[in-house]
Protein 1
Amino acid sequence: METKKVLLTEDEMPRQWYNILADIKMNPPLGPDGNPVTPDQLAPVFPMNLIEQEVSSDRWIDIPEEVLKVLSIWRPSPLIRAYSLEKALDTPAKIYYKYEGVSPPGSHKPNTAVPQAYYNKEFGIEKLTTETGAGQWGSALAFACSQFGLECKIFMVRISFDQKPYRKSLMAAWGGNCIPSPSNETKAGRDILEKDPDTPGSLGIAISEAVEAAVSDESGKTRYSLGSVLNHVMLHQTIIGLEAKKQLEKINEYPDVIIGCAGGGSNFAGIAFPFVHDKINGKDIDILPVEPTACPTMTRAPFAYDHGDTAGYTPLLPMHSLGHTFVPAPIHAGGLRYHGMAPTVSQLITEGIIEPKAVTQLAAYKAGVLCARTEGVVAAPETNHALACVIDEANKAKEEGKEKVILFNWSGHGLIDLTAYDKYLAGELTDFVLSEEEQAESTKILENYPKPEMVKST
Amino acid sequence: METKKVLLTEDEMPRQWYNILADIKMNPPLGPDGNPVTPDQLAPVFPMNLIEQEVSSDRWIDIPEEVLKVLSIWRPSPLIRAYSLEKALDTPAKIYYKYEGVSPPGSHKPNTAVPQAYYNKEFGIEKLTTETGAGQWGSALAFACSQFGLECKIFMVRISFDQKPYRKSLMAAWGGNCIPSPSNETKAGRDILEKDPDTPGSLGIAISEAVEAAVSDESGKTRYSLGSVLNHVMLHQTIIGLEAKKQLEKINEYPDVIIGCAGGGSNFAGIAFPFVHDKINGKDIDILPVEPTACPTMTRAPFAYDHGDTAGYTPLLPMHSLGHTFVPAPIHAGGLRYHGMAPTVSQLITEGIIEPKAVTQLAAYKAGVLCARTEGVVAAPETNHALACVIDEANKAKEEGKEKVILFNWSGHGLIDLTAYDKYLAGELTDFVLSEEEQAESTKILENYPKPEMVKST
């Protein structure tokens, strides 16, 4: 029998994360004064041990034993050969995926939620605040906080809060307290509600609220936690790609193409960065982050300095951004509805090391249904975007007659996000493509900020 | 670091199922004429290759290669040491669980859905009908049918259909057609609707509809598929216990206590039967199937001949039964709301080889929340019943000061069944205990049938 899964034992789990800052040069984040942010300025928001990680340029960073212990609930995740999909596509390509849906919350998000909870606990923090869009990140942090005995408060984008009641239930089962954003609990929330009481909310708004809730707690025992974008988040996710590398080595394979969907960038970074290291050192790999046409930060937005949140509480980050007040169309992949892109991922795009792709919602769900009926797993809406790109690449390999090895990250299962499958199957799902006019309008705000330099790493 | 999971490779997957009929004696199923049912009488309902399995007394039955191939999407499932739960309970017991939530539909159900779809396909069948309560079985069969290119029609108990819309979406993603039962598509459904248009439905009714839909298809290309109760279903599930045995051997452990929740019996049988074989051959093990106090077939109902469905289409099976017209209280563990119990499991109870336990809904959810916050996994409502029993046994081990090894089956995750966690956490969940009067009323119907003999196997 063909072997479908390549497994690793817990002993084979990577003991260090890979830090891409050792291999690329970056524009620094800027504070309100226009100067590079100092660690001290971030101290009210994050614990110092995580800030040190955020700015570290050590190539390898040890994964604490206590973190490995919790990760071992579901890690190492399997590497799976998509035989049935290959057959359905009649492609000479070999398709492998890391399946991150095996985690308790069902996505890759706990890979960073767990170390973030751990480092906060170590630093003496008792409560974490965060935001969540579709709910994958909020669930992951609630899970991680329950493992380390921390309180967890989650501001969930209101439209998702209303549409996805199970997400709130899941967070509650782990002891998390999830409320809809904008809320009356923060100034940022109240300001928005005053202007627009019926706002559906956005990730940018929810981040503002969560940051405010953390820094305004006078006990000093509360910090904020972010599920994507920042360097330390990308760092923690590299365990995915490091495992994949070991797994592929076991079967003497090396990828020609690497694919991951990207909202804030952490899922993509997780699978891709350890291979980006190889590419910088001469390997020939196509590395493709995939985004929705409704929120095309990587394929269309300028590389600019912008805030990570709507209220402008965060430092200015060098990133591909549609402007921090941009509210993306209501596509079902909530995790891909973010106005910016991780600075590290953005930097790799500016240097041409990775090549972003954008796919429509319909193409994504078409791919998702095909994969559900071949590989058997019903994917998260975000993953469907990667699947559409995988199918494109497999078809390209067929046209070219090449036995390419395609590796992608199956970021999560879709069991709590099934509504859109119904709509797709009923022919009621629509496509959204950001118009030139909308983009021009939303990116105007970027003119207020300094421009990042076109730094060259290699 | 302590190893949390014991894994097997695909090569180590069992190649044969264990058939308990080789080790126990049973009363035969009876047909409408009061005589033992012949294979020919079952032929309109099931394909002959599965009927042969149903009546086989071979101890070991080969698992077809094509079945192993699909099972390998998620199998072998991990055996996990519940360190965090042990710590929270401060128990000397070592607690291990097989985690069946890793399957695409999220439960143990596809272990039999896949071979059933395979054997039907082999026999030339093109469409399967079935019933589902909470939706785990319907999802599993839709998944399995999509793997073998079969059509799938699912009659879902109306109250669950309305309360759990995601289940229908999941089946649809795999191409399954799920409709609420009772429906107007069958005589059984129409008869019930005429008497009670607002009926919430029941598993017994849905089985009647699914059987009727299969046997009334004049093409002869449709058969019925049952997700529990029957011998061949128990057989297919033994892969769980067989894997667990190998996994425990790897770490030089053997269980003192085995626990599984039981609705129709297949989840329990899956983990327990390979060890029942050992117990019959002299091993000292406590083997505990767990049911809800709302539907106490094993702990209170008589061992009797009864129909498997409400309309009385199925043969009379020798089982612990509350009567085939019994409608259990609306507990959230839909998979445990069945009036009967698998004949094999029932037989073991009559012989005292296994010792059934009953737990209340509140005890089950209390256990579920504790396990979510220690082990990290949010369990299915059904699994919560097993968890309550595991905690009782771990506490008993503590009282006795014994380092017992407890093995249980974590039948599935609760990600599509979260409503009851909300209610539990809000203090709105209630207990149901079947009253003596209700039981007397519901079991009256059993007086119409012959009595099974008290057969002794050992």
Note: The radius of gyration of chain B is 20 Å.
Protein 2
Amino acid sequence: MVKNVGWIGTGVMGLPMAHHIFPLATNLYLYNRSPEKTQSLVAKGATLLSSPAQVAQQANLIFTMVGFPSDVEEVYFGPEGIFTTLQEGTILVDMTTTKPSLAQKIATEAAKKGCFILDAPVSGGDVGAREARLSIMVGGEKEVFDQLLPYFQKMGRATLQGGAGKGQHTKMCNQIVIAGTMVGVCEALLYGERSGLDGKTLLATIGAGAAGCWTLDNLAPRVLQSDFGPGFMVDHFVKDMQIALEESERMGIALPGLALVEQLYTTLQALGGGKLGTQALILALRKLNSNE
Amino acid sequence: MVKNVGWIGTGVMGLPMAHHIFPLATNLYLYNRSPEKTQSLVAKGATLLSSPAQVAQQANLIFTMVGFPSDVEEVYFGPEGIFTTLQEGTILVDMTTTKPSLAQKIATEAAKKGCFILDAPVSGGDVGAREARLSIMVGGEKEVFDQLLPYFQKMGRATLQGGAGKGQHTKMCNQIVIAGTMVGVCEALLYGERSGLDGKTLLATIGAGAAGCWTLDNLAPRVLQSDFGPGFMVDHFVKDMQIALEESERMGIALPGLALVEQLYTTLQALGGGKLGTQALILALRKLNSNE
């Protein structure tokens, strides 16, 4: 069976992911806003096209992995978007972290055209994408999910969380936990600095018990080395937290911890830290507590 | 050499800890506000006395494991406190989680009397105490720490963090991280409930990645089962967070995340949840987001 696969979005995450699924495609049709970033795939035989609409004319399985919810809107609903040319029976997979409500809107539109969509945001970052160790959180129909499993398995580990939008909701839960662990870890590091503790001894001691977390193991040591490179970029994390807060408000719930952390990261952006890694939160906390 | 050891405080934590060190003592002298709680130690041959002062008359190594900073004040500085009868050369070990500034105050007073003190708060809870798997965070002189190692090894794993008060500061860092992970995990669980996710699938999915933490592994499953028993009691956690906030203020730093979590737990106390486990934070968040 001929597999005409489309891939839209070949950034830091999308490019390695597209390489991983390439072997499953008879033909791979690409679109990216910066066409030069598709080069390594074109060199392998993929076809570069000049709009999402053109991709949707060729492919009956289309992955999208772009940046912000506004980019997803453009790629699906824009004047040269997927929905202008979408063929009946096509399967769409949006792997961008975006609004659960947008995922549902795309699902409704896709159903009208006799198509199927999964929302399938990931966690694991650029390293997870390169090493095919992403955690893929999927919302949509089980039959469609099962069909897509061979593709997901090329990129990491996928789990079906429920119907349309549930993949995005799961990703939001993931980010809400991380917001908490980040503020806890960075405030503890600041307290440790100011009270004269040795950072390495501190981390080794508290990391083994009830304070143990991925953030403490993986990001706190970078703070001790003043390494603030991403990892996961502040601007993207703020986007995710804003989506989670917007969805929470839509559901009528207040999440005061998340709201506070989002504001602290907004401070960090104001300080010019938007392109740093999330562990740079301590820079905002230090600034907040300095008299400079 | 005759080892006359004193133990003050035989509550949920102190009792199993005293049992663990018993074999190292030639004589064990006990004091507890509720004398009946020392029964199992007396049955083994320990001597129950009726004040900390009496203990300090008999013992030249004294452990204290009581409740609140005010209890520590009473046990050391009260009219029947340790300092009224303390013999020169005695080693004091306060294992209560208390104020770093109080630890320093005790150290200053002890030095005046030619005595030594370690502050050595623990983490690991009642289970860690029973199973001798406590993490013991120690502040004080290295020579004294080295002498006490055989005792600490009977209770868990000890690490020297620096001079007087540094054990308490380390414990504060531990609690600050936990405050963050608790609010992140409980807000994520609330978001998950309201957005219709399956709790078990959610935890299994996000626990494996960057959101992974002890709280998610150990306390979130209890929330799913509506098991709000302690574990670690809300009233004690609030005490710890208040100490951390007070010390932060003394050092001239604001920790907005910690302050918020402390306020949320105060809400939980107002709802009658003071004797529940820390995972009951979700009850305060649910209440905050209900129209009852």
Note: The radius of gyration of chain B is 20 Å.
Protein 3
Amino acid sequence: MEIAWIGTGIMGAPMARNLMRAGHRLRVHNRTAKKAVALAAEGSEVIVAADPAAAAGGAEAVFMMVPDTPDVESVVARIAPALHKDQLVIDMSTIAPAAEHAIAERLAKAGVDYLDAPVSGGEAGAIDGTLTIMVGGAESAYKRAFPLFEKLGRRVTHMGPPGAGQMTKLANQVAVALTLEAAAEALALAESGGLDRARVLEAIGAGAAGSWQLSNLGPKIIAHDWRPGFFIKLIRKDLRLVADAARAGGLALPGLALMQSMFNAAAAFGHDLDGTQAVAAALDRLARLK
Amino acid sequence: MEIAWIGTGIMGAPMARNLMRAGHRLRVHNRTAKKAVALAAEGSEVIVAADPAAAAGGAEAVFMMVPDTPDVESVVARIAPALHKDQLVIDMSTIAPAAEHAIAERLAKAGVDYLDAPVSGGEAGAIDGTLTIMVGGAESAYKRAFPLFEKLGRRVTHMGPPGAGQMTKLANQVAVALTLEAAAEALALAESGGLDRARVLEAIGAGAAGSWQLSNLGPKIIAHDWRPGFFIKLIRKDLRLVADAARAGGLALPGLALMQSMFNAAAAFGHDLDGTQAVAAALDRLARLK
């Protein structure tokens, strides 16, 4: 299949690579051209497009994987004139659910199928093709995209109408943030009590306190290893989207508010381009009584 | 072995029963005698003792499973005159680490081995003998108690000196509380966004947002099933102990403070004798903007 891939960053490049390896022809574009050129150098079936419209024009399916809501809106504005009936456009970025709803409506008028399909699983999941993919949009478009999603992720779920994928991702992110805080506070308490924190992870990790965050980021917190799996900068963006969506749904979530403060503090302490687990470094400074 | 078991409540009774089934002779005592009598009726090798000292006097190992720090201190005060050299006393209640340290020191003077060995896993874990057991105290006492712990739990870890078991349990509890809030807020957001929450659990439960709390209590939150696995009343007590221990360690933990407020609110809304997952009912009332 002829596929356009717009956005070949940390996540987008390995995802596009998995489609390339599955035998698809790729037309790639990236705002910073160098990254797209590097990807194209890997395969004879990959060409670099000068702009998003040139990538999208001749493709059966068009993927976007860019940072934020305005980036998706800008790409859509640029490709819309080049799109034609029966094309399939899939946004795998994490952006506002309401924006996806508007885009889906706009493209539907041109006969273009549109899905929001944000992912969870980080760079490792993108490389291994084991991402969790949460999809919003029409059932027929979902069925059409499913064989492609299978090359990118392991758990693919159709969540409902346009925006439902993004809303699920936002629920995922608020859970991720608070579960990480749970790990950070438990380990801070353990350290203040003189415990061997690695042994604490072993003792409590498989029971009612257990979580992916505790098992996977707990050891990094103990080792003060702040290298990014997922940037503080990006979870701050995601939690802003969560807060917007919560407000639109009539909710002010107290744990969400706390985690916005914690990650903002982490950024203020210089950790914006570190991994989310660096929230433990912020906690270490904010929670000290002496 | 001749074993004294003091405290045959929701947790204590099934734990004592597992030792009985393993072939030990039990001398049981409970503040509300009726529960001890009911347990004794189950086996010919179980007798009811009129007071803690009468239970402890003739036993090789003495277990305590009572609600709070003052309860343990009161039992210890009553059994201490009856204890003799080489007896083993094991506290499986969840109480203040500092109190365990003082008790261990006091009993050591009489040649009595003492362990703090709080558990996680709730009533189901107590019944199935699959509890997580976190142990503080001397290595020799731990080795002596290990064959008994094996009848009660699956994951048994020696955490360090007296009080280390309790400190580990407190780290466990702060993680449990915040991870539960993560599940509650994610599901509240999902509901406000019109998602099928059961499908959300499926989509995100195995990834970076995954946790024991989300998988086990998420479905109960969705079903508004507030029946207790673990009482709000008891986690409020535990989080008070966490706050005391954190303060003693020079820490003011922001997520802990939030969760004390949340569970206090749940109690104020009438959920003190419901399960911890009823914090979602409190959230539902506290987080609404309209």
Note: Residues 63 and 151 of chain B are 13 Å apart (CA to CA).
